[in-house]
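Postdoc handover notes: sequence design on the structure in folder B. Input tokens:
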């Protein structure tokens, strides 16, 4: 295992510098946005009188709009290039966040605030899938899991800093002015992307073909892969995208449903609930390198099943938890599943997608993930409304959804192994 860990660490060291730049941009971007957006619900509900249903409706529409933009942005980046689209999206979002801060200071109508919030969320769809496509462009197949894992680490660094700093700033200055503080890291992110060299997609595709043909020449004739079956790979990709939607529904329960359940049923205070997410953020940073080592040992399709099975255990542990410490342990287990499933899923999409149109593949992945985010509160809310007084039944119902997801990933792995012999591929 130590050898695998050293190999995983070397995978990070070999990554293109632009992948590291993207991870830094994600950290700065996430920190800037979480300075303010993590408190937007509290502002709308407690200071502007918005009901919980109305707040949920605003974010449901925002997620649907982001899902639509994901697909369009992924396809557009294949045509006009990645760098220009990412930089312009980040710059536009900085301006929208500044506008939102102005509206908060002016106590603008809630309907206008909601429209600008939806616009901000939609602009996120112009960055996320395109950035993942850049990682797939620049990382060799055996480095992609590390590349996607690094992006997740960058995001979690932003989440570890942003909400805490935002709460501190909001305690000394008006909430509206905090938005202008968040604009600074967004502008720095746009500047960093604008300076980044555009990936030469044509040259990268030729290099990948050369690597593939060289690897095939070194293998015995009997182990040479079968001719690519595009219809079969499209079927596998469709199944993987459906699984991504369900995984997103399951994963978001850790944020949407868990906080409500912990406050109302376990009587945890807000500071204790905040610490749960600190545990999640720190655990991602500590576990991501070992997770990459595990994925390299298991292959992607098996890692997806293992990671989802870990999630099943974590959800059952939440149902059994009766204290903050027990709930923290359950979050730690859930994070172990998260750091395995997320990069393995993204690396597999890169394998199955058309090398000439990876933006389209990651746009589709982003769309399914955001649809899952939109549906997650509905699924978790239904379980909470009917079963919250029976914790094992409530979280067991959600765990059954994760178990069904594990079966879906197992089916995907069976289809994948049938088309690609076990000795081939990453």
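Designed sequence:
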């Amino acid at each position: 295992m130590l050898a695998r860990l050293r190999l995983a660490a070397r995978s990070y060291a070999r990554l293109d510098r632009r992948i590291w730049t993207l991870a830094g941009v994600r950290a700065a971007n996430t920190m800037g946005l979480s300075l303010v957006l993590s408190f937007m619900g509290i502002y709308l509900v407690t200071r502007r009188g918005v009901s919980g249903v109305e707040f949920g409706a605003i974010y449901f529409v925002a997620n649907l709009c982001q899902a639509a933009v994901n697909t369009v942005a992924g396809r557009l980046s294949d045509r006009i290039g990645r760098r220009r689209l990412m930089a312009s999206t980040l710059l536009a979002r900085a301006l929208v966040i500044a506008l939102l801060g102005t509206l908060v200071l002016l106590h603008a109508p809630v309907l206008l605030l909601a429209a600008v919030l939806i616009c901000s969320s939609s602009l996120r769809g112009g960055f996320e899938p395109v950035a993942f496509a850049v990682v797939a462009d620049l990382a060799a197949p055996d480095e992609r899991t590390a590349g996607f894992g690094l992006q997740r680490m960058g995001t979690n660094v932003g989440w570890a800093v942003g909400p805490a700093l935002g709460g501190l700033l909001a305690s000394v200055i008006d909430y509206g002015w905090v938005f202008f503080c968040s604009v600074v890291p967004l502008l720095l992110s746009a500047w960093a992307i604008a300076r980044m060299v555009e990936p030469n997609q044509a040259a990268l595709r030729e290099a990948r073909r050369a690597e593939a043909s060289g690897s095939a020449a070194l293998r015995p004739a009997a182990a040479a892969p079968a001719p690519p079956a595009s219809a079969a790979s499209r079927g596998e990709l469709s199944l993987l995208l459906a699984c991504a939607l369900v995984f997103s529904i399951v994963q978001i329960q850790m944020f949407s449903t868990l906080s409500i359940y912990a406050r109302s049923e376990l009587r945890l205070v807000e500071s204790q609930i905040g610490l749960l997410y600190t545990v999640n953020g720190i655990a991602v940073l500590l576990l991501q390198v070992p997770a990459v080592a595990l994925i390299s040992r298991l292959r992607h399709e098996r890692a997806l099943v293992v990671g989802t099975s870990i999630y099943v255990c974590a959800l059952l542990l939440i149902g059994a938890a009766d204290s903050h410490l027990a709930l923290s342990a359950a979050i730690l287990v859930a994070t172990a599943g998260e750091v395995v499933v997320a990069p393995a899923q993204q690396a597999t999409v890169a394998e199955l997608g058309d090398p000439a149109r990876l933006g389209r593949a990651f746009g589709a992945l982003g769309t399914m993930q955001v649809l899952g985010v939109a549906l997650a509160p509905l699924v978790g809310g239904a379980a909470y409304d009917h079963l919250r007084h029976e914790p094992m039944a409530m979280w067991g119902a959600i765990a059954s959804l994760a178990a069904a997801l594990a079966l879906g990933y197992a089916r995907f792995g069976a289809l994948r192994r049938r088309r690609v012999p076990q000795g081939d591929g990453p």
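Context for whoever picks this up: Residues 214-229 have pLDDT under 50 and may be disordered. Don't rerun without checking with the PI first.
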